[in-house]
Structures are given as C-alpha cells and as structure tokens.
Write a structure and sequence with these properties.
133 residues; mainly alpha; 8 helices; 0% strand
C-alpha cells in the first residue's frame, strides 16, 4: 500500500506548471547527497537555495522520490528530515502535510533502521529539533 492521497496531491502539483526544473532537482539532490555535512547544515543549505513558498511543491517531489525508491540511503535520511521541517506548523507536527506520509513510510519500510529513524523524528521533538535546527 502506497500513501496514495499524498502521491495524488504531489502528482497534481508536479503535472502542472509548477513541476521542478532539472536545475532545481539537481540542486535538491546535491543538497541531499552530502554525507559529510550535519543535518542542520543540510537544512540551512536547502533554505538558502529554495524559497519558503516552494516548500510544499518540493516536499511533494521528495515524497515521490522516496515512494519510488529513487534516492540513496543518505538522500533518504536527509529527505525525511526535510519533509518533517519543510512545512512547520504552530499547532504541532500532525498538521504537517507530510506527517502521515512519513508515518506510513515508517510502517511500510522493510528497513528496520529507517523505520526507527523516521519514528524517532516523529516522536522525539527535542532530539529532532537538535538534529535539524
């Protein structure tokens, strides 16, 4: 079972004029790929290269890349952190449009370490904040 609700929303956005250009995708993959860099610096680089109003569109692209297993393990870890932090909500993480996608991904993955990492991000707010701020 794939998180179809989010995939359909993402497909709708990416099938319109707001699709990521190849330059944007290259930039995004480059940011996700740096395994020497702390996650906080990766997030900072992301914020320097993309506008806040692009967060949902880029999040949809990340969700699609994750769902289709098109990212390396390092890129996946970075993508999970970005999805949690792209659309912060003052009312809590369950208001993040990617919260359910992340939860479903954790439930469906065959990788125990990936499941633990995602659940850790979703449930350990102070530690997640420390990782990504």
């Amino acid at each position: 079972y794939r998180p179809t609700h989010y995939i359909h929303r993402c497909q709708h956005i990416t099938s319109t004029a707001t699709m990521m250009e190849s330059k944007e995708l290259d930039k995004l993959l480059s940011i996700l790929s740096n395994e020497e860099e702390p996650l906080s610096e990766m997030r900072q680089k992301f914020c320097q290269n993309f506008q806040p109003n692009d967060s949902f569109r880029i999040g949809c692209a990340l969700a699609m890349l994750l769902s289709d297993n098109l990212l390396t393990n390092i890129q996946r870890i970075s993508a999970f952190v970005l999805l949690l932090k792209l659309c912060p909500s003052p009312t809590g993480s369950s208001s993040n449009p990617f919260f359910n996608f992340l939860l479903q991904t954790a439930e469906e993955t065959d990788e125990a370490s990936e499941r633990r990492f995602i659940l850790h991000l979703l449930t350990s707010t102070p530690i997640a904040k420390e990782l990504t701020d």
